[in-house]
Amino acid sequence: MADHEETKKGKSRKKGGFRTMPFIFANEVAEKLAVLGFSTNMLMYLTKQLHMPLAKAATTLTNFGGVSAMTPLIGAFLADAFVGRFWTIAAASLVYQLDNVGWGLGLGVPTFCMAVSVVAFVAGYPLYRRLEPAGSPFTRLAQGGGAAVRKRRVPRAAVEAGTLYENDDMDAPISLYGKLVHTEQLSFFDRAAIVIDGDLKTDASDGKPPSPPVPDAWRLSTVHRVEELKSVLRMGPIWAAGILVITAASQQHTFALQQASTMDRRLAPGLSSFQIPAGSMTVFHMLAMLATLLAYDRYALHGVAEAFNSVGHLEFMYDQSPESMRSMATALFWLSISLGSYVSTMLITAVHRWSAGADGSNWIPDNINHGRLEYLYWIVTLLQLLNLVYYVICAKCYTFKPLQLHEDDDDDHRKPQVELQEKLSCKKRLHH
């Protein structure tokens, strides 16, 4: 039996790690090539081929981005609760192939790239470390919140860390790598972990020994589950700070491309008729995410900002989310992109309407050389300044989740440790 357990552990160690990186990297490269190749040329298609007014084409594109970025919420819910992450990604990629393969040569290259991304992702299947679905995360959050509201009349003095309910067996499927420990912030929800009459049920069948008491999940939550709820709520304000950043970034894929179409994009005027396609101008802000190039400053500066925001925001959501909700937390990043796109739509619509003059002119005409697009950019800049102040306040008040790691299989004598226990809450500093 012991040999069987050792063999099982050895097999589990062979999965995951750096060996899976080539498959994930190839999947991301091919998928981004398909998506960006499609989206960056969409504005030119709407204005040149469908002859849409510039403002309407811009709002159509941001609405498309909003809907596209909202769909990962559905996939994340299925991945965390029922299906698993691998099969969710694989199925969604195949749906794209079946839906777009017949659209003609214009989508041929993006479709081929998506097919390559699917093959690269599925090829690494034997090496992936798979986390089994552990039920709906929304249900656990609702149970914790409902239990706290039910016990809202419990005296505050009864909420002490030593008296709160814990059940390692109950939390085992959702805490494979570590258990969340109690924090003082958002202490109202600690009431969900206080044991009162009726919270525990015992099966007292005739002729059978009494079984251990089982908690009613809608009346009693463990400390780990309460801290899951707290973690999600704490991430909310910082998550919201990314919405207006995406609103500014949306202009890069709309009016910036229209500006590029009016530029002299010839590499050698008078010597060659070749000119850089307008859609390819976005390459400069992508390159700036790898190296802070000062050439094409308006594109490079946006690339640097997107690198810090996108990578940092996504890493924050993944690291600070509960272990069993990481797919959902990653989808929340895309939800901020969705909401940012919709805010951009509302902003463009409002500016286009409010700036209209009696002679039919406005800040965003079809020919941007006759408009005042810089006024729109100043409005976006002001929104970013206010958003920066809001973000700094949220960051100052944020409390990192404290995680008690499980003992490592390679070192049975290593004591559990607390990974992130620094408390940065405003309340604690005021007490000191």
Automatic annotation (TrEMBL):
<keyword id="KW-1133">Transmembrane helix</keyword>
<protein>
    <recommendedName>
        <fullName>Major facilitator superfamily (MFS) profile domain-containing protein</fullName>
    </recommendedName>
</protein>
<keyword id="KW-0812">Transmembrane</keyword>
<feature type="transmembrane region" description="Helical">
    <location>
        <begin position="238"/>
        <end position="256"/>
    </location>
</feature>
<keyword id="KW-0472">Membrane</keyword>
<dbReference type="GO" id="GO:0022857">
    <property type="term" value="F:transmembrane transporter activity"/>
</dbReference>
<feature type="transmembrane region" description="Helical">
    <location>
        <begin position="276"/>
        <end position="296"/>
    </location>
</feature>
<feature type="transmembrane region" description="Helical">
    <location>
        <begin position="102"/>
        <end position="128"/>
    </location>
</feature>
<dbReference type="Pfam" id="PF00854">
    <property type="entry name" value="PTR2"/>
</dbReference>
<dbReference type="InterPro" id="IPR036259">
    <property type="entry name" value="MFS_trans_sf"/>
</dbReference>
<feature type="transmembrane region" description="Helical">
    <location>
        <begin position="331"/>
        <end position="355"/>
    </location>
</feature>
<dbReference type="GO" id="GO:0016020">
    <property type="term" value="C:membrane"/>
</dbReference>
<dbReference type="InterPro" id="IPR000109">
    <property type="entry name" value="POT_fam"/>
</dbReference>
<feature type="transmembrane region" description="Helical">
    <location>
        <begin position="375"/>
        <end position="393"/>
    </location>
</feature>
<comment type="similarity">
    <text>Belongs to the major facilitator superfamily. Proton-dependent oligopeptide transporter (POT/PTR) (TC 2.A.17) family.</text>
</comment>
